[in-house]
Design goal:
With 189 residues, this protein is α+β, with helices and mostly antiparallel strands. It is built from four helices and ten strands. Strands 7-4-9-8 form a four-stranded mixed sheet, with helices on both faces. A three-stranded antiparallel sheet has the order 1-2-3, with no helix packed on it. Helix content is 23%, strand content 42%. The protein has two domains: 40 residues, no CATH class; 137 residues, Nucleoside Triphosphate Pyrophosphohydrolase.
Length: 189
């Protein structure tokens, strides 16, 4: 971030109202004055934050999930991801979610970055990790998770994105970040 970015004006919040309090996130509205002086009201999702993990086996095979997502009525190829529990760090959350969703634990987690996937209507910050040194553990799905663990070579996941077979935005972003870190160095076969 450039120095002048930190000195730019931000909105001034006059009032906040909670419209909906959910199990994972809340929906709020805020009356505010924008940096350009305009008064407005915005509505957005207040989210505690989350993680995404690209688990890599020794041969650069990605451990993924085929997960049922009711809002879109489809099974989607995804990577493990989840929301922070109270007081949990991004790394602790990544370690927990990897085991719960895939039945693998990792010896090493490398943070690839943090992203704001929908900043127009959510304050969620997502920390993206790559996990190496995978070992079997006991999968422990939440009662509302319908997940089948699947694996694909990293290079193939990039092709699946190009073919429209992987459509989850966080998964696409995370796989591309991983490809930029390790896949390009290896090169195509």
């Amino acid at each position: 971030m450039k120095e002048e970015d930190t000195q730019r004006k931000k909105a001034k919040v006059k009032a906040t109202s909670e419209i909906y309090k959910g199990r994972i996130f809340d929906f709020i509205t805020e009356e505010l004055t924008l940096p350009n002086g305009r008064h407005t009201e915005i509505a957005f999702v207040r989210h505690p934050g989350s993680i995404a993990v690209v688990p890599l086996l020794e041969d650069q095979t990605v451990v993924m999930e085929l997960q049922y997502r009711h809002p879109v009525g489809e099974y989607l190829f995804e990577i493990p991801a989840g929301t922070f529990e109270s007081g949990e760090s991004p790394l602790d959350c990544a370690q927990r979610e990897l085991i719960e969703e895939t039945g693998f634990q990792a010896q090493e987690f490398i943070q690839l970055g943090k992203v704001h996937i929908l900043p127009a209507y959510s304050d969620e910050t997502i920390y993206v990790f790559m996990a190496n040194g995978l070992e079997p553990a006991k999968q422990d799905l939440d009662p509302d998770e319908i997940i089948e663990v699947v694996t694909f070579p990293l290079e193939q996941t990039i092709q699946m994105i190009d073919e429209g077979r992987i459509t989850d935005a966080l998964t696409i972003l995370s796989l591309q970040m991983t490809w930029n870190r390790v896949g390009r160095a290896k090169g195509p076969k």
